Amino acid sequence: MAPKVLISDKLSPTAVDIFKNRGIEVTYEPDLGKDKDKLAEMIGQFDGLAIRSATKVTDKLLEKADNLKVIGRAGIGVDNVDVPTATKKGVIVMNTPFGNSITTAEHAIAMMFAVARQIPAADVSTQAGKWEKNKFMGTEITSKTLGVIGCGNIGSIVAARGIGLSMRVVAFDPFLSVDRALELGVEKVELDELFRRADVITMHTPLTEKTRNIVDAAAIAKMKDGVIIINCARGGLVVEEDLRAALDSGKVAGAGVDVFVEEPAKDNVLFGAPNLVCTPHLGAATSEAQENVALQVAEQMADYLLTGAVTNALNMPSISAEEAPRLTPFAKLAEQLGSFAGQLTESGLKGVRLEYEGDVAEMNTRALTSAALTGLMRPLLQDVNAVSAPAIARERGINVEEVRREQRGAYENYIRLTVITERQERSVAGTVFTDGKPRVIQVKGINMEAELGTHMLYVTNEDKPGFIGRLGTTLGEAGVNIATFNLGRDTRGGEAICLVEIDEPASQDVLKAVNALPLVTQVKALAF
Ligand SMILES: NC(=O)C1=CN([C@@H]2O[C@H](COP(=O)(O)OP(=O)(O)OC[C@H]3O[C@@H](n4cnc5c(N)ncnc54)[C@H](O)[C@@H]3O)[C@@H](O)[C@H]2O)C=CC1
Ligand SMILES: O=C(O)C(=O)COP(=O)(O)O
Asked: pLDDT, tens digit, for every residue of 223-271?
């Protein structure tokens, strides 16, 4: 069945065309993001949700999103998405990190000039026939200091534009390296120094608990008298009441505000302040940027839904379209190994070690580890998937270790998964042959070669003659048909393992009967 995608915010028609052309059923409801009840009613039918900033993807909405696999943000900020809850539910959240950055940087520069030359107010006055030439005295930008808070994609474009305008640029960004600052031609400074030195301050950080209220009354007090403040990033970065007071007092000479704590902003404390220029979250609103983000989000979501390729996800490692098909059998193997170990693990899991050897060591092992963790935890948590598994493992304090060895052993590729519990370590290993089929090749250090079917019996016993015949007879008498039978032992007369594929799940009576056989040490029904 074709996957279904809902677009709940205004997106360029390009997105609709791409989804359709790729065989995805698409519902375009550009105003749905504003109607959370209707959205909650509809969301259950969809595999994908494409949004901008108006749709709020809350935990309540996600509760109803039973089929959702991917949320695509046609833009950058995902503060309107509850990413931790989406991750726990196994829903990928992806954005388009570059599509609108130039446009947004240009908006910040436009705001700087609009404020410095009071263009909006001068326009209103002029069109009212007032010709107030002396009222609108401006500020020259050349040689002034531009303070950039957050010097990532957008901040660095703003910095470059600032330098192009002959400004001196200082930047505060804890993740900005000295080399990158040099390359950009900006001076890396601490926040207080930026506040002290900048004539114009512009913000380009995401909204996080660290950046919320970064510009409040105390910060403004450290700034130059007559500073200009520009916010084209997120509403919560500035305490609106404090900015209003500073505009009223003249401490801040002017502000350009594109984003608000509450959006749509209908009745904001800032409105009506002197020399305030506002726009309704227009940072990304150019046809060029909207084409970019619509095209990119639709391609990324379609890739994921149709091929499993992952690009620009915030909660999952990337998997390219080329590697997705190559990775699939290994992901299946990793998940089967995890599932095998998970079904045999009864006491508290402390850690998991994944060893990748040969060709597979050069693949995207993070994605394979996620698949292994999914298999491992599924016996406990039905809804876990490769998106949620690493987060759940972390939350539960399960230590995950990855070892990669590129040299080949007896097999071209080899994955060994070891679970570490309070009581013991247990390993299971497998490979993918050239037929693309995963095989288990070692259980607890005992070699064998088994393809895992849907229903399996796992039996450990003492290696003595006559056991296999008795096991076969017991299963036959119980009406259980054997599909495949795989054997291994550590030493002659030592510990032996049978992995038996059966056509139907083993009943409790069958398990009891097998358990009662002489020499049996453990019997377990496994399902894959
Ligand atoms: N007004 C609008 O329409 C638009 C607004 N935005 C906003 O702009 C933000 C930035 O976008 P990009 O530059 O693409 O993101 P980015 O991730 O490339 O850059 C953000 C920078 O902020 C820095 N940062 C993080 N925490 C910080 C802190 N506590 N103090 C100082 N710097 C910190 C990071 O190190 C990073 O370099 C987005 O998160 C979004 O909220 C983005 C697009 C359009
Ligand atoms: O990309 C971003 O972070 C933006 O803020 C753009 O928002 P929008 O898509 O225009 O609602």
From this structure: 999 999 999 999 999 999 999 999 999 999 999 999 999 999 999 999 9
Domain limits, the chain: 4-98+288-307, 101-278, 317-450, 453-528
472 lines ligand 2 (CB under 6 A): no
Distance 145 CA to ligand 2 centre (A): 27
13 burial (CB, 10 Å; 0-12 / 13-18 / 19+) is: exposed
The secondary structure of residue 506, as a DSSP letter, is P
Question: ipTM greater than 0.95, yes or no?
Answer: yes
Which residue's CA is the nearest one to ligand 2's atom 5?
A: 77
**CATH number among 3.40.50.300, 3.40.50.720, 3.20.20.210, 3.90.215.10, domain 101-278:** 3.40.50.720
DSSP annotation of 312 reads S
Task: Considering every ligand atom shown, identify the ligand nearest to the alpha carbon of residue 292 and give its number.
Answer: 2
Candidate list 25, 29, 263, 402, residue with the active-site label: 263
Q: Is the CB of 33 under 6 A from ligand 2?
A: no
Cα gap 357→365, rounded to integer Å = 11
pTM assigned to the model: 0.83
3-state SS, one letter per residue, for 348-360: CEEEEEEEEEEHH
101-278 and 317-450 agree in CATH topology: no
The CB of 373 under 6 Å from ligand 1? The reply is no
Out of 12, 153, 281, mutate this one to test ligand 2's pocket (max ligand atoms within 8 Å of CB): namely 281
Q: What torsion, rounded to 10 degrees, do the Cα atoms 372, 377, 379, 385 define?
A: -70
pLDDT digits (tens, 9 = 90+) for 371-402: 999 999 888 777 788 888 998 899 888 999 99
Name the CATH code of domain 4-98+288-307 (choices 3.75.10.10, 3.40.50.720, 3.30.420.40, 3.40.50.740): 3.40.50.720
Taking only the tens place, the pLDDT of each residue in 300-320 is: 999 999 999 999 998 888 899
Q: Say which CATH class 317-450 falls into.
A: alpha beta
User: Which two tokens mark 241?
Assistant: 């009441």
* For the CA of 79, the nearest atom of ligand 1: 41
| Fold classification of 453-528 (topology level) | Alpha-Beta Plaits (3.30.70)
Nearest ligand to residue 202 Cα: 1
| Ligand 2 centroid from CA 77, angstroms | 6
The pair phi, psi for residue 509, each rounded to 5°, is -65, -40
22 is catalytic: no
What does the pLDDT look like over 48-95, one tens digit per residue?
A: 999 999 999 999 999 999 999 999 999 999 999 999 899 989 899 999
**Residue from 22, 52, 204, 234 carrying the catalytic annotation:** 234
